[in-house]
Amino acid sequence: MRGSGMVGHTAQARSTVLVTGLSVFGLVGGLIGLSVLGAVGQEQDTGDRGFATTLDAGKIPSGFAPWIERAGQLCPEVGAPLVAAQIEAESGWNPDAVSPAQAQGLSQFIPGTWATWGVDAAGKDGSDRPDGVADPFTPGDAIMTQARYDCWLAGKVKDTAGRGDVTRLMLAAYNAGPGAVEQYGGVPPYPETQAYVVRIISAMARYTGADEERPGESGGAFGDRVVAAARKWLGTPYAWGGGGPEGPSLGFAQGGGTVGFDCSSLVQYALYRGSGGKVLAPRVSQLQVLAGTSVTREEIRPGDVIGFALHGSFDHIGIYIGGGQFIHAPKTGDVVKISELDDPYYAGKPQRIRRFG
């Protein structure tokens, strides 16, 4: 990793997103060329998302699962799926990994940080008995040290939690150092750190046996998952042209320099994740309101998609969450948030409601 405040090597998370539909990105009807976006992310939301804590041990390389389960019990902020996703990002499950910055082992601690935090939890022979040496190349030692340090970081960043939930800030601090999180009052504007946080939050789902995110109120299994997927990114910045099925990404034009979602990419993401990758909606709102099945306002239920013709075309879109509310990415300078359908700004505009599952 970069700098003395880092724990391990630089975690790069550059994945490409294939954009479908017309060669436009639309929140306000602007037309620009197709683009492939690198998935880096910065989250700024306002509370605990209740991330999953149940580990699917079958997804863990042999011998590591008991240690990850144990590490996931050290503090409420650090569940076992998070520990597993973090190891994947840090070392790719290689206990002998050494980075160019000399970060070492599964959890990629630099020697100075290890000297302070290293835990002797296991034997080099794979036993669960301490052997008198805290060794970053011993998986049990590395995993328990990682969780111990994560828990300490979670405590350090709690005072900054107004600019992001504790889990994301803790991950940012692990990557960039707690001083950087304090300096910027949230996830630092370092592309590698933003990518690191998004990569781990996204990877957590692979290490859980089921989607444990909170459901919607009565949308059925599919609708509840769509709502939960969108809620996960409450507080994420609006970025025109940013976002896609894999999560938030760097916008361009008026979204240039901002990592996040625009209205249609948030909808595309939530449908894709809520369906387990089976529903890939068009990228733009004008096409999303033509896809799926039309339903009336009286039939609307959580997980349905609702489009608004704000400026002559259906140039804004969101997801109904129940109780007369919808979640959406409104405009440049705003964040993913929940609004009321009876807000006069939206209530008086033509609307279309579509169901995708």
Automatic annotation (TrEMBL):
Recorded superkingdom: Bacteria
Domain (NlpC/P60) ranges: 220-357
GO MF annotations, alphabetized: cysteine-type peptidase activity
Residue ranges that the Swiss-Prot or TrEMBL entry lists as coiled coil: none
Family statement: Belongs to the peptidase C40 family.
Residues annotated as transmembrane: 16-40
Name by which UniProt lists this protein: NlpC/P60 domain-containing protein
GO BP of this protein: proteolysis
Pfam families: NLPC_P60, SLT
Record's keyword terms, sorted: Hydrolase, Membrane, Protease, Thiol protease, Transmembrane, Transmembrane helix
Native organism: Streptomyces griseoviridis
